[in-house]
Design goal:
Blueprint: H1 14-17, H2 22-31, E1 47-55, E2 60-66, E3 68-71, E4 76-81, E5 84-89, E6 94-100, E7 102-107, E8 110-117, E9 121-128, E10 133-139, E11 141-146, E12 149-154, E13 156-161, E14 166-172, E15 174-177, E16 182-187, E17 190-195, E18 207-212, E19 215-219, E20 226-230, E21 235-237, E22 245-246, E23 253-257, E24 263-267, E25 272-278, E26 280-282, E27 303-307, E28 310-314, E29 320-326, E30 328-329, E31 336-340, E32 346-350, E33 355-361, E34 363-364, E35 372-378, E36 384-390, E37 395-401, E38 404-408, E39 411-420
Antiparallel strand pairs: 1-2, 1-39, 3-4, 4-5, 5-6, 7-8, 8-9, 9-10, 11-12, 12-13, 13-14, 15-16, 16-17, 18-19, 19-20, 20-21, 22-23, 23-24, 24-25, 26-27, 27-28, 28-29, 30-31, 31-32, 32-33, 34-35, 35-36, 36-37, 38-39
Length: 426
């Protein structure tokens, strides 16, 4: 059966179609799916916290001169100097100077950067690891698609390569690039899937919410139903089933939400293998564009679900493997999961529900990376300290930092308070 409908009305942009799902995104942020809130700038006269790179002996590899530092890869870090963004390597050498208003990492050799002026607003370009400008700062937006292809916007969206040659004219209202060489392109309110050879593999139809493993998930409108179909237009989940949400398909499974706010799991044939009896299904992440971070529903064979306010884990047959006795369970990785008990303490359990790390921490940041995770201990009602633990619960870096995070090769990003913020000039 083919589900491509005749629409005849202007569809809403992607972000608007997802507005009614915002409560879900907010919930994910609040429960801390490994995401960290944007740090606000210090008030005038308050202390400034700078970031540095240290080793296990607390020796500074990169001194505390940046107001923000985040991992991009095993060789590069993004940095900020009072809202100006740049890139350095792990030895502290500047790769892209921290004088840009916007920076997006593509790979170790390509960075999308943006500058702001009151005359022109934001203008975006592309630079390489030697800070050579490959695409000039003349575009309203830039999105990397695949290899040397980029979607660029000048009024409308089109496609160019790194030589600046126009591959597709500026003719699209909106674009959503995916990681597998396909992209959703919109003309006059309808979307179609396009290959890097400029072939349309689907007719123009409903807007996609996600695309992964050859399955398109889409909604019929701003408050419409979700459905799913393949690249040939064959129905996998009909819209009239009335789902309020469907996640990206990963390893052949996706979770769904009903209008009654109940959650279950479907397979890539559209069959409900776990009925909608749960109040939540926990996965690592939800993304609206691109699926490189899409995570499986079942990790290590288990899905973490909620029954009311109690969390446990089930297998693919729906059998309860971990009882519903936790405040929260993060998705399993490498046979272990971070869990929160009824006293609000964090620990780690295995797929049998056995404690791997006792519940003695006030927070453990999801996920463990190369066997390390940041953890928090409350020193008093008003003060907390962070340290680094390994998957066995051993303390790798002591609990004496206001912020610390594993980077790579026994290096850690940490925060250091250094002096006072400059006072505003009258």
């Amino acid at each position: 059966m083919n589900i491509y409908p005749e629409i005849g009305i202007e569809m809403y942009p992607t972000i608007l179609i997802k507005m009614k799902r915002n409560y879900l995104i907010l919930f994910l942020l609040l429960i801390g799916f490994g995401l960290q809130a944007q740090e606000s700038q210090p008030l005038p006269g308050s202390s400034v916290r700078y970031y540095r790179l240290i080793n296990r002996e607390n020796k500074e590899i990169i001194p505390p001169v940046y107001t923000k530092m985040e991992k991009l890869s095993s060789d590069y870090l993004s940095v900020e100097e009072m809202n100006n963004r740049g890139v350095i390597n792990k030895k502290g050498k500047t790769v892209v100077p921290a004088d840009h208003a916007f920076l997006t990492y593509v790979n170790d050799k390509l960075f999308i950067v943006g500058d702001f002026t009151y005359e022109h607003g934001y203008q975006y370009g592309v630079v390489n690891e030697r800070n050579k400008v490959l695409l000039p700062f003349e575009y309203e937006e830039i999105k990397h698609w695949k290899d040397d292809l980029f979607f660029v916007k000048k009024g409308q969206w089109g496609v160019i390569n790194l030589k600046g040659e126009e591959i597709q004219p500026m003719m699209y209202n909106w674009v959503i690039p995916y990681d597998n060489g396909l992209a959703a392109v919109r003309i006059s309110g309808r979307f179609a899937m396009m290959t890097t050879q400029w072939e349309l593999v689907t007719p123009f139809s409903y807007e996609p919410a996600s695309f992964n493993e050859g399955i398109i998930v889409s909604a019929t409108g701003l408050f419409g139903n979700f459905g799913a179909y393949d690249l040939k237009g064959n129905t996998i989940v009909p819209y009239d089933r009335g789902y309020n949400w469907i996640s990206p398909f990963v390893d052949g499974y996706a979770y769904f939400q009903t209008k009654e706010d109940r959650w279950g799991v479907i397979n890539d044939k559209g069959e409900e293998i776990i009925p909608a009896i749960y109040s939540f299904v926990a996965t690592n992440t939800i993304r609206m564009e691109g699926q490189e971070d899409a995570q499986p529903i079942f990790s290590d064979g288990l899905a973490c679900v909620a029954d009311g306010y109690d969390y446990g884990a089930i297998d693919k047959e729906g059998s309860v493997v971990i009882p519903f006795i936790y405040n929260f369970i993060y998705p399993f990785r490498d046979g272990c999961a971070i869990a929160v008990n009824k006293q609000g303490k964090y620990g780690v359990i295995n797929t049998k529900g056995e404690e791997v790390i006792p519940f003695r921490f006030d927070r453990i940041d999801f996920p463990f990376v190369n066997g390390y995770a940041s953890a928090v201990r409350n020193i008093s009602e008003s003060e907390s300290k962070m340290g680094i633990i390994d998957i066995e619960g051993n303390i790798i870096m002591p609990f004496e930092y206001t912020f610390i995070q594993y980077y790579t090769d026994d290096l850690f990003i940490s925060e250091k308070e250094t002096g006072l913020a400059l006072k505003e000039t009258p």
